[in-house]
Every structure is written in structure tokens, then in C-alpha cells.
Amino acid sequence: MTVLPVATLRLVAGVMLLAWALHGHAGTACAANAAGAGTISQGLALAQKVVALLDGTGARVALVARVGQDLSRYKLRYSHFAFAVRDHAGGQWSVVHSLNHCGTAKAGLYVQGMGNFFADDVFAYEAAILLLPSELQAPLEKVLASPVQLRRFHEERYSAVAYPFNTVYQNSNQWCLETLAGAMAPEGDVVTRAEAQGWLQQEGYQPTLLQLTPMTRLGGRMFKAHIAFDDHPGEYRWSDRIYVVSVESVFEFLRRRYPNDSQRRIVALDDR
Length: 272
Prior knowledge:
single chain; alpha+beta; 10 helices; 9 strands; 39% helix; 19% strand; globular
């Protein structure tokens, strides 16, 4: 039997923890994660509850988030969010989001039914919904119906821990946030990723801070194609401060911007 050095064991453990935690942070299109019949049934039941809630609001576009993994270590609940669009060409209440291709550093845009969105092997059958003001729904509906506009803020180079204010990489939640920025800013002011990030900084968006040790960062970069840290400023990276776009940070930004017009709803499968 081969005995690994203690340092190597710590490195492997750090990699496993990072990969496990950040898999849910980003959203992944992976056939290897195919869910069983029971999981699919529960996912569809949750999707039905989400659709019923959305139908009762009169919304055209909303944000919907899922609990893909247990991120409580980072004081986070939801791992991944998407746009939910009523009467999309892909079907009523379609979900539009960015996913990386099964453990790779390449991402694509996907349109799925609500049932598919919750059919993955999630950590908890719970959804967070953020209802948006009509002034934001209208421009978003146009963007989400246009393949060209959808890709405007999308970057194929993927990292689960992409720095929010650098255009080298992008994580799934970051694409949604930058698309939101394009819809919120005055028309014509934000048409590139760099402009979206600059506008978000100017408007006070605050990303989520993850405390990741050097050993964990090294292991993640060495063994996982979809984790990179070289886009983060050195003063943050070398002081164990890794900033990312999380569901909570985006929802909080929108609630601050629209205090009277954004409503957060929680839907859980065990609700009575």
C-alpha cells in the first residue's frame, strides 16, 4: 500500500473540499450527474410549486435560485441562479442560464424547462425567487428573447471562482449579474463586460468573500480545469481573500437598488 506524505494528503483534502463546494457555486452541465427517478420526481414537484407561485404574481421575468450544494461553510445557502422567463420560445417559464461543460473550463448558455432546472441531484429541495420591478423586467425580456443579446455578456472561459471585476473568466452567476447590469444601466451605456463590471462597481455591488487557504488554491488550480485564481488581484489572492459573484450578493444588490419593488420568496418542497 502506498502511503502519501501528510502535505500531499492535506492538498488532496483541500482540493476535494474546494471542488465539492464550488461545483454547486457555478452550475454544471454534466451527464455524470444524472439524477435517479426519486430525485427527478422531487425536482419536478418543486418546479411545479415554483411555477404556481410565479403564475400568481403576473411576472414576466424573475430570478430563481437552487441549493445545489451545502455551502454553509461559506455562510451561503444558494449555489446557482438563473432567469425564469414566461412565454419564452423554449416553452412557458423557461430557465435561461450559463453552465460549464462537465468539469471543463468552457461554458455555454442553456434554455431549460423549470423541471430540468431542479432535476439535478440538489442538496435541498428549496428555491429562492426574486421578483423584479416591471421597469427591469421589460428590457430583460427583450434580451432573453434574442440569441445575439444573450451572448453579449457571455464568456466561454469559465472559472467557478472568477473575479467579479475582471473579464478573463466568468462563472455562471456572473453572466446573470452582468446581463442584469446591461438591462439596469441607461440604454447604450453598458454594452461590454468591462462596462458592465465598471457600472456594477460604481453602483455599489459587493461580491462575496471566500476565505481560501494557499494550499486549497494551489490544489484547485492544479487538479481542476474549471478553477482558476490568476484573474484575482495579488493583494487579495495572497491574503486568502477570494471574491466571487454569489446568489446572495446579487439578490442583496437588487434589493438595495429596488427596496420597494423587489420581493424575495422562498419555496420548499416540504412546505404545507
